Amino acid sequence: MTEPVARDVVPTDAPPNAPAELVDDFTPALVDVGLHHLCPGCGEPIAIRSLVEAIAEMMLAQRTVAVFGIGCYTAFSNNLDVEVLQALHGRAPSLATGVKRARPDTVVVTVQGDGDMVSEGLQEVLHAAARGENITCVMLNNGVFGETGGHMTATTVLGQRTKTSLEGRDSVAHGRPILLADLVARLDGAAYVARCAVNSAGQLARTHRLLRRALDTQLAGAGFSFVEVLTMCPTGWFVETADAPQYLEEHLGAVHRAGVLKDVRADAAAEVR
Amino acid sequence: MPAVPGRRLLQGSEAIAGAMVGAGCRFFAGYPMTPFTEVLEEMAKKLPAVGGVCMNAESELEAIGMAWGAAATGTPSATGSTGQGLSLMQESLAEITLARIPLVVLNMARAQGDYWQATRGGGHGDYRHLVLAPVDVVEAVELIFRAFHLAATWRNPVVVLGDYYLAHTARAVDPSSWSPEPLPPAEWALTGESGGSGHAKLLSFLGSAKQRDGAGYDLAVHYAACADHTARMLKEVPAQVEVGFIEEADVVVVAFGTPGAYVRAAVRDLRADGVRVGFVRPVTLVPFPAEVVAAAARHVRAVAVFENNTGQMLDDVRLAVLGEAPVEFIGGLSLDPSGFGIAPDLDVAVVRRRILSVVERHT
Prior knowledge:
The structure holds two protein chains of two kinds.
Chain A: H1 44-57, E1 64-68, E2 83-86, H2 92-102, E3 107-113, H3 114-120, H4 122-130, E4 136-141, H5 171-174, H6 180-185, E5 190-197, H7 201-219, E6 224-230, H8 234-237, H9 244-250, H10 252-255, E7 259-263, H11 264-272
Helix pairs in contact in A: 1-7, 3-4
Chain B: E1 8-11, H1 12-22, E2 27-30, H2 37-49, E3 53-56, H3 60-72, E4 77-81, H4 83-98, E5 103-109, H5 115-120, E6 130-132, H6 137-154, E7 157-163, H7 164-168, E8 170-173, E9 202-203, H8 219-236, E10 241-244, E11 251-254, H9 258-272, E12 277-282, E13 284-286, H10 290-297, E14 302-305, H11 313-321, E15 327-329, H12 348-362
Parallel strand pairs in B: 2-3, 2-4, 4-5, 5-7, 6-7, 11-12, 11-14, 14-15
Antiparallel strand pairs in B: 1-8, 6-13, 10-12
Helix pairs in contact in B: 1-2, 1-6, 3-4, 9-12, 10-11
């Protein structure tokens, strides 16, 4: 990295009067190519960056197998410098189980969305948690099928407009959202369950700490760890890109509440004290 | 008969499980279902003793997923069910094939209605599995060893298509004589170790080219490469077949799996009575021994097909014979009320009568 240089703020209310120039390459070490085709304002690249940075910081790059589900984030399954096994929609936890049981020395992380993990694959993640499978599942929850263009998932909140709930999700017509982290926390095999977001620098810093704690839970062999990350999807929410972080706070985040729902290692440590 | 050292009377399920472990299988996942259940039971007993893992999965979907994950690490792995359970697994089986991951899949079928499922596949896209159909426990052991070898060599799922009889009849086998060839190394397998090298491994049904290579997922390129690989596999894997009495036969009967043993016995009896009949028993259903069937059909008056279904392999026989002789179906759906495909139509006398009726009509 080059030394940071103070620069003038570029006005963004008019077309630039100078061509773009590369200031620095901020691509994290474990991301092969910084370019991707996800929409402006998407939260998923931020979450994935945080995850791969956690893997790098914890010196786990040479032990990790990431198992990817199917969603917009699948754009990254061929773009990481960690080993990746591509799973079917919803099925990453059983593949991760097979990897971990066959090679217990690996660190196994699934990356799935809410459509993948909660709509299509709910039974997979619940059984993996109940088994206390020593893997880490990361769910990028934006409350919408982003890749298909904004359709209702099992985590879409009441009132949220999607292409399949045009007047807003209605509890009678569509049922109520599943709060997956809350559900997983009730299972005895789950050792660490947390929910966080990437809609502000503070939330992102917290997300990073929680992801590290989840990986640490796996390293300790304590059982199933789960981090649900709320991510922005301005395209699928039909809101302005710049409004999406605030929209997340007021809608998705008001129902899927951030927090550490369970940390059995911290509880055990507290009992000892 | 004096006891032969090393020879043991084993039920099919136990012999198959023993052969899998002997062939190097170290991961198995399954969901109980008759008549596959005992294979799962035996693997649960045998695998932990050799440092392997057997998972009683929560569904067939998870069973195939777990086997997929384990196989991706280069661990020789297998799963299985009946045809019904395999129906649930088809989506995964299609993608495992396109990700080029080796896997052995057992179908302890109920009767023979799963020929199309096994040989055509019920999943999406262009893919083929190799399919082996043992006639009995002794041959099943031999084919299990072959299945693991073929799967690892071709990085492709291999289906072993059995049935209730195979899983539940006992035969004397000699596990002490098993000496499997070592499986080829799996350089492609995920271990975690290539991370951070700039060339971390990727195992995906969407392709293995990465963004860094300036490529990324290009499904047209990947599917074309898979199709080339499949074509080569189907050309180079030798078809395996048993034939009997086909010289100077007026009628040749084609059958696979357990019914093949009944056809073989009926043909032998008819030959002893001077009736000019022969049989062809495909052992590999994919690749289908089309050349052997065609050659056997060249000078006959008719070809008959006996299966415990409404006529599925019949298609492949007709494609092999290509109109050189009339092809008649003399099988039918199992009459067993349990649905497991046990007798009463699997009877040498019944098969003999049906073959004779073909002979009478064509001579």
